[in-house]
Amino acid sequence: MRPDILNPLFAETETLDGVGPKLRKPLEKLGLTRVRDLAYHLPERFVSRRPVANLDEAGEGEQVVIALTAIEHRASRTQRGPYRVLAQDALGNVCALTWFGRASYSAKKLLPVGETRWISGRLDRYGDMLQIVHPDHVEEKDGASLARLCEPVYALSEGLTQPKVIGLAAQALARLPHLPEWIEPGQLDRAGWPGWSDALHLAHKGEHAAARDRLAYDELLANSLALLLVRADNRRKRGQALRGDGHLRARLELPFPLTGAQQRAIAEIEGDLVQDAPMLRLLQGDVGAGKTVVALEAMLIAVEAGKQAALLAPTEILTRQHFETLRRMLAPTGVEIAILTGRDKGRARESVLMGLLDGSVQIVVGTHAIFQDSVAYRDLALVVIDEQHRFGVAQRLRLASKGRAAPHTLAMTATPIPRTLTLANYGEMDVSRLDEMPPGRQPIDTRVVSQERLADVIEGVGRHIGGGSQAYWVCPMVHEHETEDIAAAEARHAMLRERFGDAVVLVHGQLRPEQKDAAMERFASGEASLLVATTVIEVGVDVPAATLMVIEQAERFGLAQLHQLRGRVGRGSDKSTCLLLRGEALSETGRERLALMRETQDGFRLAEEDLRLRGGGELLGTRQSGDAAFRIATLEQITRLLPAAHDDARLLIERDGGLTGLRGEAARVLLYLFERDWGVQLLRGG
Ligand code: ADP
Ligand code: MG
User: Are 26 and 165 members of one domain?
Assistant: First the structure.
């Protein structure tokens, strides 16, 4: 249960003055539903304004405070058009004050014709006139105090204004309870950080680096604590030691010898499985590094020990592909493998469920359908989670409740992330890295081509598929609405289909699963030779005969994502090519990203560079992907502060694993504050 002391923070925003049903929506759009969220809605930047006596003194683009007298109101003829007030300065220079939408209603009252007001805002040019769009302030007197102000600028959504958010944030701050300190006093002193509530006040008031760091540290500490509590809880659980005698593994007829890295990973897993405490291991390996075989060996150990194993995949497509691959490899062993997804219904489903219950199905591959309540296992001892980054920690925990004793968990991810971020996301796990590619891979010939040469590129694709090879064509996800992206992909598909006919198929996120599978199957079987897709192909699809990839507007993708996409080609023994089409307006970072793609194929290196290029200001926007979600800490802060936060969390748990001491109690409050309560809940369970 959340400590009562936090109640004022978790009250809904509607409990604040001035928030009714109307304001609720725009706040929700920004993810602000509770007082807590507003307190943590930190300004994006701050502006200071210069008082000017007249418009001649002001520069375009400058934030100013100026006295202006209204001379004329101009309502728009259309309802959606702007409402303009023409106003003049002391010299008679005219400037337009412009409002859009609902805000225009207030303009009339704010600026009656003939009256003088202090206006603050950004001076811009509109045609041959100067204008201020949505002035931040319109005041009758006291222009001087506006000028002194170093004012926060908040992220807004439609229906919100800066003054409104400033007011709400102030109300939220006024409600901050007095919380016990969870950061060690020594650390606080050394870093020169303010206390929690001071830090929040300061962070809303100005560019206060120490305050921002403290708040980021809080978030990182909460995250590490929660992960380490999961780990500690896991250590306490009784699992079942799995000892395989090797008889099934010996029957595998792999067409290749395992790489050193694969052998190492398997040995590490084997070492974990013979322990009583359940394994919690992450297998990190770039696309194509050969994680599937490692998973297979691990699952066979479980089966040799007389138990069941399950492999969880994030998508239908990937599940089917895994099932086919594994079934082929398992054929000489006689091991019974089944598939279970949300789409399997009726008799087939019943028979798989029976098999899982009576133990005749030894390995099951599926989507999260395999962990629904209606699915019971005879003796599930190992869970392998493919493409772990698609699932959240909380989900991972739910899976663990399936076995009779806690099952061993092997999580796999092909997203090469920097070491710090591995710690932030998977701090509760042991890590095996596949840092060696299977031999014989040819480097992918990567070229950057201007989007203007689209016609040439299409000709090239024509020659490629004309010669019997296959290709991917990736359309970006860049628009605000997914539907726009899909429309763009559909248009490209239609265009390429006109040119190449039936051989072109389309896959995107809004197709029905059957349609998606049908398209994928046509491509995988070689019947279709060009697959047009949005980024849904990012995850694990394996078609070795596809040796060309075109990525449109490649500069819009992050390095890590480009790397993932490119990993779809270069899977067979033939030379592969990746064409990165770039738009005209290429930023410096965009240019550097594409250059790096040309230069290296090492995913871990690209991940580190990605981190460097994304730099300080940008938040780690990975909420959807199930990675640890940081809303306060920036990438730069994660890199700089996480190692210390993680050590701190480890020390605290070593000293006070039940979080019952003074600092432990404070740490509980912190966990609830950042909604890592799944961490605390394990305490009572254990
Ligand atoms: P990922 O790590 O991306 O899941 P996969 O397990 O799908 O990679 O393997 C990619 C390809 O490499 C597959 O076709 C697989 O058969 C092949 N492969 C895996 N291990 C080896 C190896 N040791 N030597 C040669 N090929 C391998
Ligand atoms: Mg894979």
Answer: yes
